[in-house]
Amino acid sequence: MAFAFVSGDPALDLAGTVGSRRDDPADLLAAPADLERWVAECDGLPDRVTANAAAFTAALSLREAVYRLALDRVLGRPFDPDSLAIINKAAAGPVPRVELSDAGLRTSGDLSDVLSHLARSAITVLADPAAHLKECSRPGCTRIYLDRSRGARRTWCGMDACGNRMKAAAYRARKRTSP
Ligand SMILES: [Zn+2]
Predict the structure, then answer these.
(1) Domains held by the chain: number
(2) Is residue 24 domain-resident?
(3) For residue 79, how far is its CA from the centre of ligand 1 (angstroms)?
(4) pLDDT tens for residues 99-114?
(5) In this structure, is residue 162 part of a structural domain?
(6) Distance 162 CA to ligand 1 centre (A)
């Protein structure tokens, strides 16, 4: 399955690599190679990182912490202390290096740098009282996204992933009930 970068924040996109979290969790990061591919595909991160077993475990732990804290925000409850410890520790490390040239922006760093960057990005979103964090309203999706739309009226994480599916389902339902 392809990765989706529709959450409005790379750390939330990382959390979104587990779909259908409540019913039938589907984890797109089954092995370190999947994580390497995810980092390469995510905008603003280094093109090539290597994930060893320890770094992979750290990434999954950060991912679950981000998800838990985002869910805490969505539900309006206090942050989970263990997840706070994980994200704050990850954020304290060095971040990827960015360089400007005529060819544009180049980002370099290892996976640990990437995790620090993701943790900081998540913290910025989670700490912002004005940020509209929502869970996708397609039943079973469970992706949490940052709604930056005007008036915060978005109801789905992404049009391709969920919006079109919901519209198609509504169309089929209308067709069934019409005589
Ligand atoms: Zn969705």
Answers:
(1) 1
(2) yes
(3) 23
(4) 999 999 999 999 999 9
(5) yes
(6) 5
